[in-house]
Structures are given as structure tokens and as C-alpha cells.
Amino acid sequence: MSEASEVVRRPTHLPKPRGPLSERVVAALVDGRPLPERPAVLDEEDGAITLWTIDELSYRGFAEVDDDREWDPSVVRLRRQLEHDLEARLRARWPGRPAYDGGVGAFPDALFAEIEAHEGPSLARYVHTDATADQVLELLQLRSIYHLKESDPVAWVVPRLPVAARASLMELQYDEYGAGRPEQLHAALFAKGMAALGLDPTEHAYVDQVPLEVLEQNNAMSLFGLNRRLRGAALGHLAAFEATSSLPSRRMAQGLERLGLAEEMRAYYLEHVEADAVHEQLAARAICGSLLAEEPELEDDVWLGAFTCLDLEDRLAAHLLDRWGAA
Ligand SMILES: [Fe+2]
Ligand SMILES: [Fe+2]
Asked: Are 123 and 220 within one domain?
């Protein structure tokens, strides 16, 4: 077994249900029965863990579930119903695109200006100066739901883009996927950091611990990535994600150093200080910029994706800082 496949282990366990819908869905996925339809009344967390579970069938799946269930009509039907709810929630939170001069060509600078002006609560700032080791370990467990499949949701978008945006997205993805070296895959770097900290680097290992906000973050990325119609939102989300990564990654690395936590996890964050300073330019200018030059009608969706990225991170940060008494 190579070093990389040792640290990124295949997921094995379905999540614990969080209500009656996920209870029925998890059972039906295992025993092969059709999935139910979305009930008229549905708790948000029950719906979110159900959609997360269905979406995972399109990534690396679950050992207990037949791979063929991904395209089972009852699975697709429920996925679409839950995606519809999620998209409606995300669109309801979006205040609309900011006013700026210069048309779609001005998008990259307008995005950087928005992010500069954005003042959300910052988990990385708290980790840098105040968090305890237990709080940092808890945060890394929550982050693992995404970081162990880092860049996978946006990989769906590649074949859906015009030539220039496709080439630029592949340039960025080439870095994220380790530039041909499995041990340099960003997901593998994170897994290595988790193992060094005594955490379980298996995908999904901590899904039962994550709050609604983390499920919503992951479900939004899958929604944008899996629906070609929402390719603009997927790339707007990517641009905002990359543009809010370099400085926070430095703070995370400094926080880990302050607490004397594993060098391997610091290495993951230090890699992102450098890489994402480049990726933010690539994502905003070469990827979103060239997409909008060819498909300007996607401008609103690009902003929806960027807003959703910032908004969902703000919601997670507010939730955690409040729980830690640090708000
Ligand atoms: Fe990365
Ligand atoms: Fe990146």
C-alpha cells in the first residue's frame, strides 16, 4: 500500500440518522429498497444529513451501499427534492449582486473589493491567538468532512466549461490534486496531519459530530458542482474560497505552532499560504473572468456562489465561537 492510500482511507460507515427521513433513507440504502419521497414536514438537519448521504454516493460511496444506487430513480428523485429546498434557502439568503462599474470584465476586482470589505467572524483568527488544543482538534474534525475530499466538488465542473475557463480550472486542480504526486494531494496532506494529531483520517469518520452548518457547506458545494446549470455558482464559490484562504491558513499555522500541535498539520496550512495566494488570482481572473467573458448571463450565479461561500463560513464561525464562549 502506498503512503498516500494509507492516509486517505476509503469511507466505510454511513452516518447516524438525525430524524425520520434519514433513518428511512440509511436503512433503504443498505437493504436495496427504493428511497421515500421528501415528506411535507422536514427538519433541516434531517434533510441536510440525508442530502449529504445521497451526494456521497457520487464521490467514493459507502462500503455498505451498492455503487449502482447512485442513479437509482428513487435516489435521484429525493436528491432533486432536497436540492431544491437547499437552493431555495441559499437564494433566499443572497442579497443580490453588488453594484459595480465596468460590466462582467470588472468582476475579479469587484470580488476582491467585496471580500476586503467583508467582516465576518474568523475561526482562524481565534485559533491564532486564543483557541485551546481541544478546540483546534474539534475544528479540524469538522473541517475534515470537506478537506478529505478537497477540490472534488468543483472537479465535476471541468467538462462543463468553455475552453479558456476549463484550461485554467485544470491548472488550479492540478495543484489541488498534488501535481501528479499522490502524497501531495491536498486531501492527503490533511489526512497526514490528522493522523499525526491522533485523529482518524478516514473519510466521514467525524460526520456524526458535525453541526448543520458543516453539512450545509458541503451540500452547497455538491449542489453547485453536480448541476451543470449552477456552474457559475460553483466557480464563484471557488473564487471566494480561494480568496479567503491564504491569510487564514497562515493564522491556522501560527495557532498550531502556538499550541505545539503536529508539524504535519502545520505543513497542510503552510502549503495553502503559498498556493492560495496564486489560486485566488487564478480563480477570480482566469477561471471566473474567462467564464463570464463567454457566458455573461452567469454573472448573478457567480455572485450567488461567492456569497454562499462567505455566508456559510460566517454561520459556522458564529456557531462555533458562540459555543466556545468566544463570540
Ligand atoms: Fe487546497
Ligand atoms: Fe487552493
From this structure: yes
Per-residue pLDDT tens for 62-85?
999 999 999 999 999 999 999 999
**Which range marks the domain in which residue 225 is found?**
101-323
User: Each residue of 223-259: pLDDT tens digit?
Assistant: 999 999 999 999 999 999 999 999 999 999 999 999 9
Please tell me whether residues 70 and 207 are part of one structural domain. no
* CA 277–ligand 1 middle distance (angstroms): 11
Euclidean distance between CA atoms 133 and 13, whole angstroms: 27
Let me know whether 110 and 68 are in one domain. no
Task: Look at residue 327 in the predicted model and tell me its pLDDT.
Answer: 75
Tell whether 155 and 219 lie within a shared domain.
yes
Residues whose beta carbons lie less than 5 angstroms from ion ligand 2: 276, 279
Q: Which ligand is nearest to the CA of 275?
A: 2
Which ligand places an atom closest to the C-alpha of 287? 2
**How many structural domains comprise the chain?**
2
Cα of 176 to ligand 1 centre, how many Å? 5
What's the CA-to-centroid distance between 75 and ligand 1, angstroms?
30
CA of 181 to the centre of ligand 1 (A): 14
Do residues 78 and 109 both lie within one domain?
A: no
